[in-house]
Amino acid sequence: MTKEFFRSRRAKVLAVSFAAAAFAVTGGAALKSHARAEAYRNIVNNTYQHAFAELTTAVAEMDAALQKSAYATSQPLLAQLCTELFGRAMSAQMAIGELPYGNVELAQTASFAAKVGDYAAALSKSTAAGDGTTEEEKENLRALAAASGQLSQMLQDLQADIHGGTITLEDLEQAEVRLAQTQEGGETAGSTFQNMEADFPEVPTLIYDGPFSEHLSTQQQPKALEGLEEVTQEEAREAAAAFMGLKPEIFTAVSTGEGAIPYWSFSAVVDGGEVYIEVSRQGGRVTELMNARPVGEATLTAEEGVEAARAFLAAQGYEDMEPTYHISQDNILTVNFAARQGETLCYPDLIKAAVALDSGSIVGFEAEGYLMNHTQRAMEPPAVSEETARAVLDPDLECLSHQLALIPTAGKYEVLCHEFKCQLEDGRHYIVYVNAQTGSEEKILILIEDESGTLTI
């Protein structure tokens, strides 16, 4: 046999060996990757099961706190139970957020937990103020307890089925596939969550000082538009053009919308940017403006921008508007204005105006707060003097200024307060609101101030 034969044979053996080695390496990597994926899947499934267990526990504890609070007669005990109730409701919401599409398919459960938590916070506040508990509030607590008891039992039954292997929780990928099929019109079985929510217990109607109160959706109407006539789409187009000092024919109708203030909307191309504007169908007032034109280098200071915004509002008929806070981003200054009635600043009557600092033109406007709340109010004089209210302030706070202010509550009610702007030794600023009728602290805000402007938290 020749050398060439042996060389050829050795080459084949090496090739087969390398191929086998490569296959072994690839196969090993695939096995390792599969094992890693399986381990990850187990971790995710365990996380979902843990989250569901946390939800079941939180709702059970929420149910227990509700049952106790419904029959508590001691104000300190009720305040303690409301605090506990709020914490359990927050735990339930956090657990829902960890489940795949929990906030979509557990929407009623999430909404119930949010309502219970907020209602508990409102009761805790009124209890701390010494207002006591009304019979209506007691009935609400009993009705919430009945609903939470049913929900808790449903969750416990589901958890037992999960532990028994009768049902399994979907992972994120499975939920995505099922939801995509549903959106495409396919017939798919509902998830465990959907089946549970179909039998969700009846929840009582709550009317209280909070964001979930029924009065917010059934009673609130735009006060500044009361008595004004409906406008046609063409009249709304003319109002949009007049607001911007432009010709009506450049505006194109976009849509009509509902909501708190039904509107006509229009768009136009102005100065190289698209303008979008909404006009209320009642009264023909501009509710919102967004101008996307490019903004160049700033030529105006923040103070000049504030004055440009004030002048624009006055030209549109918004008199007695006081600038409160402003912030500058990308050479656009956004200024918050509140209406002033006599000596009182009315924060619910809010207008936001955005000024382009390259020219002083208005590139943004939002007036829903003003249109919903502005009216001539019959205000009672403060029962608590400025001096008495000032004595409530913490001694470490130096008072810099004072004014009367009307502030909104969580339930869109209004409270007349003494507003004190204060400062600590290190220069940090706070706003303290003292109720002008009761003399108790109503709210404290922290001012976040930097070169771009001022925000409150």
Automatic annotation (TrEMBL):
Pfam families linked: YPEB_N, YPEB_PepSY1-2
Keyword vocabulary terms for this entry: Signal
Signal as UniProt keyword: yes
Signal peptide extent: 1-29
Sporulation protein YpeB N-terminal domain sequence ranges: 38-170
Domain Sporulation protein YpeB PepSY1 and PepSY2: 192-379
Name of the protein this chain belongs to: Germination protein YpeB
Organism: Pseudoflavonifractor intestinihominis
